[in-house]
Amino acid sequence: MTYVPPAPSELAMVPFVSVENMMRLVNETGPEQVMIELAEFIEADFRRWPEFDKTPRVASHSRDGVIELMPTADRDNYGFKYVNGHPKNMREGFQTVTAFGVLSSVANGYPILLCEMTVLTALRTAATSALVGKYLAPEGSKVMAMIGNGAQCEFQALAFKAICGIDTVRLYDIDAMATAKAAKNLQGTGLTVLSCSSAEEAVEGAQIVTTCTADKQYATILTDNMIGAGIHINAIGGDCPGKTELHRDILLRSDIFVEYPPQTRIEGEIQQLEEDYPVTELWQVMLGEKQGRQDARQITLFDSVGFAIEDFSALRYIHAKLKQTDNYQMLDMLADPDDPRDLFGMLERAKG
User: Fold this and answer.
1) Is residue 109 located within the same domain as residue 160?
2) Distance from C-alpha of 130 to C-alpha of 14, rounded to nearest angstrom
3) Which SUPFAM superfamilies match (predicted)?
4) DSSP per position, 271-289
5) Which structural domain, as residue segments, surrounds residue 137?
6) pLDDT tens per residue across span 73-87
7) How much is the pLDDT for 220?
8) What is the DSSP letter of 226?
9) Catalytic residue among 53, 76, 224, 239, which?
10) Looking at the structure, do residues 303 and 326 belong to the same domain, yes or no?
11) CATH classification of the domain holding 84
12) Same domain, yes or no, for 297 and 225?
């Protein structure tokens, strides 16, 4: 008689959202609607910012890139994201950024969600940018320059369309093939898409300027003379020590808004400035404790590096979304013996 091991208990099973299921979920809902909904979850969590455990991400740097863990928790759930950033990867046929995440119950430590986060991070990054743009961009903004047309480009354009109401995006990348890719992907989205031959040309007539480049170096994607009064800069490419995109003089003329200062001062554009240079935390703007955009001529800068609470919000959103969909599978992830003290006996009994 063939031995049939007992089926895993319900407590052993954890919902898993694969890349395939994530893409299915996003396409069924629509990318723009997903980012609108994600922004609502992110804003809700920013508005209760003091409730969270907060720490700069734990980073392991090498000559080739960085691998990071991004943890946070509130009183109910703990979440973390594993993410890499390897600029050389594209030349070798790999993604520059990949990620996965876990959401767990604080009450018992059991995971309640395992999720791909390569696609989800692209969505939450764009949703966060556009959410911040809602507070900082000039009123009535219609044109965005998008400098750096890699994997994040189309998500940014669609998020700003859906959440901030832009109708035109001006594209530039040092790689013309990247610009052509983005322009093709944005056809039929309702956006007017203009491909530009330089960063200077892309910025012309734009009220919002987004920079998203991948080189791990101090770079000057925007020079001081390119930014006039009244611009909102959404700087999302700088995300590690030694990597920036903006000339220092732009920072000195801007009002700077950040997610979590202890992390941004290490990784963001403000690593170019003194350690005590004044910045404004976004959660305080969203709660009305600090001012965002104050006048039409103000230059605002979102020095975005990505913070764990945004990933927590994204995982919380997906966990809630699973109640409306079957785009997940259950994985046997947790050993759950009948007697919690007898893990070895469970192993022995599995021999048959």
Assistant:
1) no
2) 32
3) NAD(P)-binding Rossmann-fold domains
4) GGS-TT---EEHHHHHTTS
5) 129-307
6) 999 999 999 999 888
7) 81
8) G
9) 239
10) no
11) 3.30.1780.10
12) yes
